[in-house]
Write a structure and sequence with these properties.
heterodimer; A: 268 residues; mainly alpha; MetI-like fold; 2 domains; 11 helices; 0% strand; B: 265 residues; 82% helix; globular
Chain lengths: 268, 265
Amino acid sequence: MGEAAAYADYPSVRTRAMRRGARSVLVYLRTMAVFVVVWALVAHLKSNPVLLPSPLAVMQAAVDLARDLELFYHAWVSFARMLVSLAIASAIAIPLGLAMGLSRTFDRIVDPTIELLRPISGIAWIPLALFIFGVGNALPVFIMTYAGFFPILLGTVAGVRDVDRRLIDAARTMGVPQRTIVTRVVVPAALPSLMVALRLGVATSWTAVVAAELIGAPSGLGYAVEWYRELLMTPQVMAFIAMIGVLGYVCDRLARLLSDVFAPWASR
Amino acid sequence: MSAKGGAVGVHARALGLGFLLPASILVVWQALGMASGNPRTPVPTHVVSSAIDLVASAELPLAILQSLMRVFAGFAVAAAIAVPLGLAMGAFRSVDRNVDPLVESFRPIAAIAILPLAILWLGTGTAAAVMIVAYAAFFPIVVNTVAGAKGVNPTLLRAASTMGLSRLRIVRTVIVPAALPAIGVGLRIGMGVAWTAIVAAELAVGAKAGGGGSGGIGQMMFVFYAYSIELNRIIVCMIAVGLVALALDRLLRLAMRLAMPWSAT
């Protein structure tokens, strides 16, 4: 242990790692700079600020929208909807997945229904859900819950199935009751797979929310993008699109963080 | 399948159990729908008769065909860019380092978020839909291709360069064949995403462009929602969306198995 610590402190190793980190940041910035310059040039040649505004105009729009807090308001609305949806989806999918993974009979009863519904994407539910829920919060939440449900369920089932039989048998041999086996053996062993599933759920529901809000919600990032398109305010449209990307990235990072906190042994 | 003696009985019982839940859901749905007294409430029997109507009048098959054409066009564009780019990124570190930031920056932007821009640039017709599909399918294909090209057994690479092959030849003769299964997975995921994206794009175009004649199954669903309020027909469309998704996935799996019999997926 002492040796490893000494090795980590060895100056050339540390500086080399730091230098490599600094270089990748530099390469990242360089690529994005090239992208922005090309964009600016094309925008300049096109000289049509509605079709293709310059990067500067988009920056300006983003700053203005941020100062009005409009950018953050819509981002928060979308984010909150996703949290609620994922909470509902997990609350149904995780217990269901545990039961399906543990009981063959239960799996045989439920699985065909799941497989019948799964190919119907969340987005295909939008017209029907629009009719049932109307325009409002309920529609995007329903669509996202539906979209997030399947990855979480399938990941849970796979995780439970992959639990090492010997662990369960060992616990049983030691006289551990079934309940405790589930909570102390099966759940921890299935946790890494569950966390991957949750990340997938975040990704699919994030894609679905934009579509749901674009069509049937009075607020949120998807709504804002479409609102500014109708006003032909392209810089604002692009600012909101960028926000969708940033928040999508943040959500993925958060899901990874969750995995590091709850299942630190799962990280590579 | 498993042709062991008792297996047939077990299979039949499992199938019976599997039918239990969908069948009871259908029965409860039918009973509730009939009890509600509202003739608009969709019930399974009406869904079936609507399905027969829509197929017989060729409306549904034509709409699906139009959507599929767009999916194939967008998918082809995506694959034509993503596969070579992914191979280059996987094979050459310098390409990877310089292009990866761009790919990773755009990847979290959901395809539908691009739709307003696509409408602005290309109108509400096929071109915008194809752009959305291409954007959606691009990322899974590129990411999987890069992973496949990077995951090539380094011993093979070293052997090839020991034998004095040029870098380009190594790409052609070692990296491409080794990355094929991963590319196949990327194409399959990309196709699934593309189909979801076309439905979303057509729905949104229908909703936001005043139901202009963009056609396709998504547009059709929106018309049933907004103009003629026919919930039975909407459900028929939903089922059709699911069936097409399933068929596309099976088709690509089959194609992969034929193209690469050595990889078991």
